Amino acid sequence: MPVPTAAELTDPNATNTQMKQRLGQLAENVESKEGALEKANEARDEAISASAPLENFNVMGNPDNLVEIKDAAGRLIAAWNLKAEFVTKLLTDGIIQSVENGDGSSVLTLGNGREVDLYGTKFTLDLSNPDNALQLLAADNKVLFKIPLNGLDVDALLGAAEQINTLSGTLSSLKNAFLTQNHENGISKSEIFNSEKLSETRRKVTAIESGGIEQLVITSIGNSWLDTPSYLSLPLVRALKAKYGNAGAGYISSVRSYIDSAEAQLSASSGQWTSSNAALSDLNIPAPDIASNSSSNVGAYLQVTLKKGIASKVYLLADSTGAVVNVTKGGTILQTLTISSVITELPVTLDATSTQDSFRLEVVSGTATVYGFDLRNNQKGIRFNKCGAGGSRWTRWLNATASTWQAFIAHFNADLVIMLEGVNGSWAYDANAEKNYTEQMINRVRAATKNADIILMSPPDILASPTYTLRSYQDALRGKSLDWKVCHVDLQKTFGEQVSDYDDSGRQYILMANPNHPSDIGGILIASLILRLITG
Known about the structure:
By secondary structure, the protein is α+β, with helices and mostly antiparallel strands. The chain is about 30% helix and about 30% strand. The chain folds into four domains: about 5-50; about 60-185, no CATH class; about 190-245 and about 380-535, Rossmann fold; about 250-380, Jelly Rolls, CATH 2.60.120.1360. The protein has eleven helices and 28 strands. The chain has a six-stranded antiparallel sheet with strand order 4-5-6-7-8-9. Strands 10-28-27-26-11-25 form a six-stranded mixed sheet, with helices on both faces. Strands 12, 14, 15, 18, 21 and 24 form a six-stranded antiparallel sheet that branches. A hairpin with a 5-residue loop joins strand 4 and strand 5 (about 105-110). Helix 7 crosses helix 8 (about 430-450) and helix 8 packs parallel to helix 9. It is elongated, with a radius of gyration of 41 Å. The protein starts with 5 loop residues before the first helix and ends with a helix.
């Protein structure tokens, strides 16, 4: 029935019967509206329940927020303000202060809003992604977990946390197992690691063996183990040249002894030259072997004598001081030269196939500072540039002007670079410092000859007692050999696990008479190992 109007309810002319009818109609309609409101409220509650993001979440109102999402325990997960904006500032107060296991132990906690502790593992909380309420980042900034703006799946979080916890335990077990293997019967037990990095060396050797006119060029850099010929270079070079041929004498230092005195040698006019050696002091001598010979005496000479093989090209390696020198052979001046470059090709050829042959460099004016000479030919075979510096450690090498030193290393254009240090360094700095200095030296070598293979050798414990153990050096360098992409040789494994295995009472690879260096038979042992690496 229609609801009576206000005019009908206040009509002064209405009879008593009419007024009773009109009041009855009004009461009936009020009762009907009250039932509808109750039903509407019930329908609203059912709709809210059905539209909850997850069945274990509740949507609740708040005077300051349009929507808040809490889990079954009443913990606030996310909130949107009255403008329907996600309220990220609540994260700094800890939207999720903790998520707990059934036993009360913490699965996840938020500290200051940036550091996240998930099962004991630290992550970074990141709020920069506009599509996510938050995300967890690993140390390398990879996203490990994220919460989208439409809410957090707590079950997914707990499942991910359980996986991380399991993985953490597995990684810890693997780490312990690796360390055990590494020191007892794993990769560091082998004397050779990462030998697959010698691809260019193997290619050149195979080309020579198959009849090609190829040359394998080797440069050695390091301390006395790579300077004194008997410690390694002499037996190695003789074996390689006997097998593959002689591609030239290579580098002949103006200060240090040549590899094989039966092949070539350098002599100087007596009392007229002054040598400088950066291996023993903090000097900047950017020679290949950080040593030089200088003279301003007119007529002072350096004589290079070739006793075996041929030198179709001869280069002078010197400081570009502007000194004037004569290049002579058999008393005849072949050239008067002003030294204006650190590398100069000389108008000289030497042929010692039947008898030795030689030439001289004589001072005319100025001060000539000579580093050495490079002798080459076009025949297939081996050319070895011995650049070891007895008594040196890497810090002394790093004193040399990098660009000049690298110009000489680039000039040699080696296929293989052999590096060894550690003995002298172990008296001065720890294994971590040795690792860092080694990396700097490798970077210098790579900048000069980026395609060269590198054999990095670690010496064994010596009979003397340095400040830091050489075993710690061995572990540090092997651990980085993968990153450096070098072949690492641990001579401790070659010589023996204990010093007593190879001292005077053992196999005599190192003797007390010379406690810091290999004996002659120790040098042959090292050469046999490198020979095996080169020849396969």
